[in-house]
């Protein structure tokens, strides 16, 4: 394990790849059916978030703002902006839920959104998400906790066949769907919270809706506390397990830092076999495990000779690093957006909480970059090949259907990385031959 370097000596981030807490909150609310996220802050904050998710998912994004300015932030306590925005939303689209989340401007002013929410007679969940703290992961987790704390009704009994699944923010919609179906194959009823698998999965709906379509319903959120177990995937969402247990202490909590690669998925399968009292996993699960094993054999020659730079949210870093290390890949450098306990468990030469400038200074340490769209410009500058993963990805279409988790996704991930490594080596050979030809012509 590498020592985590949490301070780079810089007073600011020069080339950040970090996304804010309000963005994480917006994404979590989009996983609730017929929900309207309402960002309490400046219009530009909501516009940036809306554009980013629209470009990433290639889908219309439901998002409204209270459009606070620096003047109204001082003169108005925030009550009027919120109540008028909620009134306008209700008159136009009649959402099943409104998700009010704050930004740095309104948090600095100190607006009491809890007090405002108590005076409003519409289905509403509020959460404090200042963008000068945390990041995408914490915004997502705080919102999930708020949904449970404010909507879920306490219970005393549990249903052993019901499982609440809490994925981390970096899991794409198809990955949430695959994980839910994987657990259901063992005989369980699964409710994902939030559930992007049916709201932002690039399917054609009846029309372009002004509200989120698909996802966990408000009724399902209200009835979560009768689940027999809650499964959290990702260190950032681990606290959600305790939040749900406050509604019913009889709920069992099982946590996984990730469910990527062979070992991570094996741990999930072992727990599901024990919980379901099955002797063997479903045939399709065994089949995909064998396919992943074959993929590991086929790809380890290419991946094992390659040094990687990983740039992502901490939970996503841990998952990708584990998959690469299983086939001998060398994670030379891992750069996280924010600090997290999971960083200390990543097998890498260096783990840094920093920005892309740090990666540029260490350009000689790695061969291939795996990260979000912002790493593409870095790849051009340092002359490296990049593989797109994480938020946001403007370079490729179909990010919502890119699956890297479980046995099936693990095989796809290894093939993508191995093919990128082979193309890199072919390019190096081509350039070497061209240099030889030029030297011969000059002689």
From TrEMBL:
What keywords is this UniProt entry annotated with? Answer: Nitrogen fixation
For this protein, the record's PROSITE patterns field holds: NITROGENASE_1_1
Q: Matching Pfam families, A to Z? A: Oxidored_nitro
**What InterPro entries would the database entry show?**
ChlB/BchB/BchZ, Nase/OxRdtase_comp1, Nase_comp1_CS, Nase_Mo-Fe_CF
Outline the extent of the Nitrogenase/oxidoreductase component domain. 20-421
Q: Pathway it acts in?
A: Cofactor biosynthesis; Fe-Mo cofactor biosynthesis
Q: Does the keyword Iron-sulfur apply?
A: no
The record's similarity note reads: Belongs to the NifD/NifK/NifE/NifN family.
Name the job this protein performs. Answer: This protein may play a role in the biosynthesis of the prosthetic group of nitrogenase (FeMo cofactor).
Q: Which NCBIfam families match?
A: nifN
Q: What is this protein called?
A: Nitrogenase iron-molybdenum cofactor biosynthesis protein NifN
Q: Which organism is it from?
A: Marichromatium gracile
């Amino acid at each position: 394990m590498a020592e985590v370097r949490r301070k780079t000596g810089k007073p600011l981030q020069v080339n950040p790849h970090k996304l804010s807490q309000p963005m994480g909150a917006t994404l979590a609310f989009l996983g609730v059916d017929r929900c309207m996220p309402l960002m309490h802050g400046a219009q530009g904050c909501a516009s940036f978030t809306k554009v980013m998710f629209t470009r990433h998912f290639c889908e219309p994004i439901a998002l409204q703002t209270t459009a606070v300015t620096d003047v109204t932030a001082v003169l108005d306590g925030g009550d009027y902006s919120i109540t008028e925005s909620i009134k306008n939303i209700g008159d136009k689209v009649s959402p099943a839920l409104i998700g009010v989340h704050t930004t740095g401007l309104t948090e600095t002013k100190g607006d009491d959104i809890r007090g405002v929410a108590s005076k409003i007679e519409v289905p509403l969940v509020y959460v404090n998400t200042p963008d000068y703290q945390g990041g995408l992961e914490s915004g997502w987790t705080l919102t999930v906790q708020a949904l449970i704390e404010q909507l879920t009704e306490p219970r005393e009994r549990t249903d052993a066949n019901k499982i609440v699944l809490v994925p981390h923010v970096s899991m794409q919609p198809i990955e949430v769907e695959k994980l839910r179906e994987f657990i259901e194959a063992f005989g369980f009823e699964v409710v994902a919270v939030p559930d992007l698998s049916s709201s932002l999965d690039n399917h054609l709906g009846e029309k372009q809706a002004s509200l989120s379509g698909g996802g966990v319903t408000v009724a399902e959120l209200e009835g979560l506390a009768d689940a027999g177990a809650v499964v959290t995937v990702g260190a950032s969402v681990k606290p959600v397990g305790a939040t749900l247990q406050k509604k019913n202490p009889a709920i069992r909590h099982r946590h996984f830092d990730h469910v990527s690669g062979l070992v991570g998925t094996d741990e999930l399968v072992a727990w599901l076999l024990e919980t379901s009292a099955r002797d063997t996993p479903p045939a399709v699960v065994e089949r995909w495990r064998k396919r992943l094993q074959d993929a590991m054999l086929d790809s380890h020659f290419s991946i094992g000779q390659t040094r990687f730079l990983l740039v992502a949210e901490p939970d996503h870093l841990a998952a990708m690093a584990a998959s690469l290390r299983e086939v001998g890949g060398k994670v030379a450098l891992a750069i996280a957006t924010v600090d997290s306990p999971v960083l200390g468990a990543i097998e890498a030469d260096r783990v840094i909480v920093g920005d892309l400038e740090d990666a540029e200074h260490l350009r000689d340490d790695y061969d291939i970059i795996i990260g979000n769209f912002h790493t593409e410009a870095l790849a051009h500058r340092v002359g490296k090949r990049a593989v797109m993963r994480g938020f946001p990805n403007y370079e490729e279409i179909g990010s919502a259907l890119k699956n890297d988790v479980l046995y099936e996704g693990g095989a796809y991930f290894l093939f993508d990385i191995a093919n990128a490594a082979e193309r890199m080596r072919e390019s190096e050979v081509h350039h070497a031959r061209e240099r030889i030809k030029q030297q011969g012509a000059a002689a």
